[in-house]
Specification:
- The chain starts with a helix and ends with a helix.
- It has three helices and no strands.
- By secondary structure, the chain is mostly helical.
Length: 101
């Protein structure tokens, strides 16, 4: 596989992951009958964004590098916030179980 074919594959894979996040969000919202953003949205954003960021570096495209680079911070921060909320819920649930038991 040539270097260009490899990077085109990375770019198209990143774009596919990035597009899939919208489908995941749409399906989750339809199921809930409310607009929701599932955790999978942020993981697909991070994975797709990382692949597109890598492809942009290969292409030396400052517009895509900037756009995807900034997005990676947002996706990572949202995953950190989700993790923090889950830990908080576990602490509350764990504390209540201790009081009941």
């Amino acid at each position: 596989m040539s270097n260009l074919v490899f990077w085109l594959t990375v770019g198209f894979l990143g774009q596919a992951l990035f597009t899939a996040r919208f489908l995941v969000q749409w399906l989750a919202s339809e199921r809930k009958r409310n607009s929701v953003v599932p955790v999978a949205f942020w993981w697909l954003s991070l994975l797709g964004g990382t692949a597109l960021f890598s492809y942009a570096i290969f292409r030396r495209d400052p517009v895509i590098i900037t756009g995807q680079g900034m997005g990676l911070f947002v996706y990572t921060r949202n995953l950190m916030l989700v993790g923090k909320a889950r830990r908080r819920l576990q602490a509350v649930d764990g504390g209540q179980e201790g009081l009941q038991g």
